[in-house]
Structures are given as C-alpha cells and as structure tokens.
Design brief:
The structure is a single chain. The protein folds into 2 domains: 132 residues, P-loop containing nucleotide triphosphate hydrolases (Rossmann fold); 62 residues. A 6-stranded mixed sheet has the order 6-7-8-3-9-10, with helices on both faces. A 4-stranded antiparallel sheet has the order 2-1-4-5, with helices on one face. The protein has 8 helices and 10 strands. 31% of the residues lie in helices and 26% in strands. The structure holds adenosine-5'-triphosphate and magnesium ion. The site of magnesium ion (MG) has 3 residues, from helix 1. Belongs to the ABC transporter superfamily. Pfam families: ABC_tran (PF00005).
Length: 262
C-alpha cells in the first residue's frame, strides 16, 4: 500500500522565489542569466519549465536545489530558506547516473546507505512503485534506458521527498518509452503527492503532465514570459482539443508560429 506524504498543518507554499538574480563570469565578463525572478509554487503542483536553450532553466533548478547560491534575492522551500542541497529536494537529470558496481536495489538504497539509515521496506516499495520488481539484483548494464531511468526515479523517491526537481528527465529516451515514462511519472506524482518542478523541451509532455506551464525567455537575461495554468482534468488524453490552443500559445511564446512549423 502506497502512502501519500502527510502535509504539515497550514502547509501551502512549496517554493517561493523572490527577486532572484544570477549570472556567470565567462572569460572575465559577467553575463546575467536570470533577472528579477519571482515565482511561487504551491505544495503538490506539477510545474513544467519551458524556454530556449541557454535561457537559464537548469540554472534556476540548481538554485532551487541549493547547488548554487543566487547572486541576489532569496529562495524558500516549505517556508525555509534554501542554503544548500537537502533531502527534501531531490534532483533528477537526463542521465540516470547509476553506479555500475551497484545493483538496482543498491542504487535505490544509495542515500540510505550513505546516511546509515537503511530501510529495506522503503527500498522494496520504491522498486515496486516504478515497476522494477524482479530486477532488484540486475546491474545497470543489464537495464534498458527506460529501466535505468525508473531506477533513478525509485532512488529519487525512496525517502519520500517533498519536491522533485527534474531537469529533462526523459530527454534521452526514445519517443515511445518517453510516452510510457510520462504516464509513469504522472502516476508516481499522484501516488506520492510530491511537488514537481520539471524542465522539458517538449510542449506536449508539459501539457500532459503539468498543472502549470511556465515559459522563460528574453534577451540578455531571462524572465518569466508566461505562466499558464493547465486546467484539463487528469487523467488527460493527449489529443484533448483544449491542448491545441495552449500548445499554440506556448509555442508562440517560444517564438514559433504555427506557420513556422510547416
Ligand atoms: N558554470 C557555468 N559557468 C559559466 N556559465 C554558465 C555556467 N552554467 C551555465 N552557464 C551559462 O548560463 C546560461 C544558462 O545556462 P543553463 O544551463 O541554465 O541553460 P538551459 O536553459 O538549461 O539550457 P538547455 O535548454 O540547453 O539545457 C548559459 O548561457 C550558460 O552558458
Ligand atoms: Mg538545461
């Protein structure tokens, strides 16, 4: 039996980004990436971040994950300032980054082994949750791309994080496996009730999964160009006619008109 994460009394705002600025020095020249970013996300939302390559999506995720500190402004998760990485925010990248010398079970249990707090039941439940029962003893090289990514998902979910930070997590999968994994990701989000912040380049993926789609972009530095609520009920049908207008709206924010796609 899968249990949903218990919500703290009064818990609403999962993420609060206020006045965040960030940039990098390249060859001694400071290049701003994110300017005056303000964003709030409520607990349990699934937010998809879209934007052109290089606009700062991964940068924003790293700031939320606490892997970097913003040059200005502040970020709070569940009402607490982000000062570094934490077990409440798990990051998943395109690459599943499994340890080749650890089995599926050992990879899923990695964080628990590091902290010395092994919970076999939670590990088995996470493996079952992602549909990998029977493959506990498989080595990473014996897994398909989708199975490796499921293992990474189980590893991410094993300690019931409150927030999953996903940087193009399905970007390297073939088109059909990707559709299956989108359905799986949706199911996991419903069952585990975490807040998801996911970068994707796939507008249809965003519309299938997200409760909100945020488009980043701009010249010189990025800002939020649009923040679109996707009101279609779950379970969603990929061909839902209501997605047509939203898809056009998002693509035009990204600089593509219907004509330019022909
Ligand atoms: N460690 C770094 N040092 C210097 N510049 C960096 C660093 N990380 C990112 N940048 C710069 O920040 C900008 C945003 O990069 P980022 O990786 O956040 O983009 P992105 O929106 O995730 O792009 P993509 O869609 O291609 O993944 C880029 O111009 C990049 O050159
Ligand atoms: Mg990126």
């Amino acid at each position: 039996m899968v249990t949903a994460r218990p919500k703290a009394p009064g818990e609403e705002l999962a993420l609060h980004v206020r006045g965040v600025e960030h940039g990098y020095h390249i060859d001694g020249v400071y290049r701003p990436v994110i300017h005056e970013m303000n964003l709030t996300v409520e607990a349990g939302e699934f937010v998809a971040l879209l934007g052109p390559s290089g606009c700062g999506k991964s940068t924003l995720l790293r700031l939320i994950a606490g892997l970097e500190k913003p040059a200005a402004g502040w970020i709070e998760v569940d009402g607490r300032p982000v000062t570094g990485p934490g077990p409440d925010r798990i990051v998943m990248f395109q690459d599943p980054t499994l340890y080749p010398w650890r089995t599926v079970r050992q990879n899923v249990a990695l964080s628990q082994d590091i902290s010395g707090k092994r919970n076999d039941q939670a590990v088995e439940e996470a493996i079952r949750l992602v549909g990998l029962s029977g493959f506990e003893k498989a080595w990473p090289h014996q897994l398909s791309g989708g199975m490796a990514q499921r293992t990474a998902l189980a590893r991410a979910l094993v300690n019931h994080p409150r927030m999953l930070i996903l940087d193009e997590p399905l970007g390297k999968l073939d088109a059909l496996t990707r559709l299956t994994m989108q359905t799986e990701l949706h199911r996991l989000w419903k069952e585990r009730d975490f807040t998801a912040i996911m970068v994707t380049h796939d507008v249809d993926e965003a519309l299938f999964l997200a409760t909100r789609v945020i488009v980043l972009g701009g010249t010189n530095h990025s800002r939020i160009l649009s923040d679109i609520r996707v009101d279609a009920p779950f379970h969603r049908h990929r061909d839902d006619p209501c997605f047509l207008k939203l898809r056009q709206e998002i693509l035009s924010q990204l600089g593509y008109s219907a004509d330019s796609l022909l």
